[in-house]
Structures are given as structure tokens and as C-alpha cells.
């Protein structure tokens, strides 16, 4: 389905929403968009000076005045006027900046609803911007990613996509696919005359060039995922090694319950912290041991599942343990079981071990891993640990300037499908297959690339994307 075939529940109907976070603040914004919103605004807004109506005002102008419900004043506000099509939604828009108390903001919003607006759905302003051709679907998603960015790298990548850097790259791919497809389909119109408008050698070279570009974007997803989601970092180890204490210390807050009773953590806990612009998604897991009950057994199973997905595993051992040989064996087995993950052994409770240096040396010799000594409880060695974590994942998270990154699983899957279609076309040409089959695969590749920017999209995809947005955006 083309984006032009999609429609809003009530096309162009005026909508209203609070565009700032709920709560007490100095100022808040209530925005309205759609057919007739300037007339709605004029019914409730009176300028402090002059008699000019907002419906007569130029776009990108600000007007100071008061909102009235009948003859009762609601608040003093600034009204910003945006004219179609040069507004965010490409419709007529007004934004009222009012005082930020929740009661005040509620009155302003209700005033808009009472005068003909309906409450906007989640993401409906951005959805209208997409449907009205103001932005493409990838840029719409980037707006959501920028709002929810939790690291500088994620923010910068979202800004790049919102500017259209990735859209331009994909637009170039689409143009090349359209040219290749057009010549092939032209041959279908002259099939009875056995005409070849493009040599198969030239078409093969074009497809190979397209494959290289698509593959480069697919490969960038690993970097993009780390930027948007953070480095998946699992804190593993035996019960009472201090995993929850380490999580709390890294976060700087009491997030996990700490107890001397083994088996306190029954399920994993996830939180993020940022060090030197790199976001780590920390997972505190259940202690690794032979489980004595069903709930603990499930917690340990989930711990191992999270380790299988990890980019970085921090194995925490208690220097005071009497089972150091068992710990060394566990570390070797875990490292062998997860060769794709970075691995760091952390020797905890330095403050309680008289022979800490000798014990750490034994662990290094027995596991062939790097070992960092800390006291999670007292905070000793934590700064060094953070620096070491950053150094371990430096190559994982390395971004080149002006890189175009794929950060969305939806985009990644569409590109993988496009790559498969291009490979199918390549193989069909090599086998001298029918022109119709080659054209079909090129059309499929074009559609998959078009899905990313919204050239080809369906209602279900749109609902999935915009349901993640807050109301007012």
C-alpha cells in the first residue's frame, strides 16, 4: 500500500494535546493542528494589544494575550501561529505557551476540546507530518529516537537520521533500483521482439554495486544497535559475590536489594549507566549455582540466557571464597561458552582479603583473563573498572565521523530482505532465467527499501511505530 492510500481516522480534523511533560513547571505548551484551528484559537484568545485575529496573522509569529472560557479568563499565554504547509504537520497549527501548573494546563486543553478539537492520539502530530509529506517514515522514527535518547551517541545518530542522512542514502539506492528495474520491465513490453535494452553483464555489475551498498548498511546495524540500546553488559557470578552491590555502585543508587542470604536475586534487573559517552545496559543476574527450588532454577536459566545475548560479561568473584578452584573452572567454561562477548573478571571484596594480590595472580594464571580488583561496597577500584570497561568495548562502539548507521531492527530486517532479493536476481541472471523472474526480484528489493522510508508501508506498521510516541508528539 502506498503512503498516499493511508488516511487518518478523521482526515484534517482539529486535534489538541499537551506537548510538554505532565507535572509542575514554569511553562507548558498546548498545541492544536488541523482544519479550522485558527478560527478555534480566535474564539478563545484575545490579544493584549491590537485587534488582529490569529486567522489573519502571518506564520511564525508570536502573539501575547489571554485565553477566555466565555468571559472567564483561563490564563495569560503566548500564541505561536504556524501556517500550512510550513508547519510541523503541514497543517494550520497554533501552540499556546501557558503557565506550567497541571490545573492550568488541564483548563487550557479542555478549552480547546470544548471548542471543536479532539484529543490527539499518541504520535498523531508526527503521523500527520509523515502522511502530509513533511517528513518520511524514517525521519518520523528518528524524532522518537531523539526524544528517548539516553546517550550522546544515540542523540547524535537520531539527529543525523532526522536531518535525512540515511534517507538520502536509501533514496540513492531506490533510484538505482528504479533505473535497473525500468530497463528490465521495458524488455517485457517488447518480449515478442526479443529485445535486450541492457546487457546482462551491465545489470550484473549494477546489482553487485547495489549489494555492496546494502551490505554496508546491514553491517552498520551492529554499531547502530549499540548506540541506540547500549552495550549489553551482564554481571554474573556465584551467590553473594556482590553482584547487586556492584550494580548499585555503578548506578550510584540503591536499585537492587542487597542481602547476605544467597539466592536473593531470583530474576535479572536491567538499568543503564553512561561512562565517557558510552551507554552500558547493565543486567544483574541470579547467582550461578545448583538451584534448590524451581523459582531459583528459572532465575539461573534466565541468567544464562542473558549471557548468551551479552556484548560484555563481567564475572564477579569473591576473593574470600574457599572454592577458588571452582570459580576458576566456572570462568573458563563461561568464557569458552561465549566467545563472541568481551569478558572481564572482577575480583571483589579487596578490603576483606589479606592476600588479595596472590589470589588475583592465581585467577589470572588459571583463567587467562584480565582481572580487576575492587571493593564494590566501599567503591575502591570502581573508577578503574569503568575505564577498563570503556577500553574493552571501544572497538565495539567505535563510530566514524559522518557514518550513516542503521539503528532500527525494522530497517535492518527490510535491508536483509532487500539483500536476499538482490542475491536472487543475481543468481537468476547467472542461470539465464526468464526476464519476468529477474524483474520480480528487483521489484521486491525496491519495495523492501521503500518500506524503510514509507514509500511502501501499511497501516499496521504505522500503528506500531506511532503507538510508541507520547501524546502531543
Instruction: Walk across the major sheet and give the strand order.
Output: 3-4-5-6-2-1-7
The value of Rg in angstroms is 29 Å
Overall pLDDT: 83
The tally of strands reads 13
Distance between the termini: 25 Å
Q: What characterizes the major β-sheet?
A: 7 strands, mixed
Helices and strands, in N-to-C order? Answer: EEHEEEEHEHHHHHEHEEHEHEHEHHHH
Oligomer: single chain
Which residues form runs of ≥5 with pLDDT under 50?
1-10, 256-267
Strand content: 15-25%
Q: What is the helix content? A: 40-55%
Tally of alpha and pi helices: 15
Q: Name the overall outline.
A: flat
Q: Based on helices, strands and strand pairing, what is the structural class?
A: alpha/beta
Describe the structure.
It is a single chain. The protein contains 15 helices and 13 strands. The N terminus is likely disordered.
Q: What's a concise summary of this model?
A:
This protein is 46% helix and 17% strand. It contains 15 helices and 13 strands. Helix 13 (409-430) packs antiparallel against helix 14 (435-453).
